[in-house]
Each structure stands twice: as structure tokens, then as C-alpha cells.
Amino acid sequence: TEEALKNMPKTIEWLKSLNYKSFERVRVMCLAPKGFIDVHRDQAHSSLKGAVNVAITHPKGCKFYLEHHGELQFTPGKSYSINLVNFHCVTNDSDQYRYHIIIHGTK
Known about the structure:
By secondary structure, this protein is mainly beta. It has two helices and eight strands, in the order ααββββββββ. The protein is globular, with a radius of gyration of 14 Å.
């Protein structure tokens, strides 16, 4: 978007370097201190062609739990391709904001 090009040029440059054929949706997600994302799942059919979740920040005290896998060990810059048929949730038991980029696209 024009807004992303204006405000996040280095992020746009990085996304282009990932060599996706196309992007369906790219989101920067913020979870406030002491916030949580309740248990849910994002798709009904099993697939690893779903989202890639990239940690920008992941303060100590943040936990990302994925059904059948337990806690995913995020650190800034670490990413996971997640099968979002599995239930998952996130808690931020810190005093800092947590930022992740969620990428939906075709490689």
C-alpha cells in the first residue's frame, strides 16, 4: 500500500527479497503488554501453505502455544510456517509491546 511504502520502506524491501510470487496479505501485529490472543484456529483444513509468522520483537514473558507442539520459541527475526488448523494462543506477560509480521503468500 502507499502507506506501507511511505512508512516502512525497509520492511517492503525485505519482503521483496523473500521471492514470493505474490502476497495475499501481510500484517504487522501488535500485542500490548499483559495482553493475550485467546485460543483459536485460523483454518479448517491442514496445510503448511498458510501463514509465516516472523517475530520483530518477542519480549521475555511472551508465550506462543501451538496445539501438538507446545510453546514455539520465538526470538526477534525467527520465523515459523505454521499449520493454522492447530489451535493456538499468545500471552504477553511483559511490560513491552510484542510485534510480529504475518505473511500470507505464494512462493
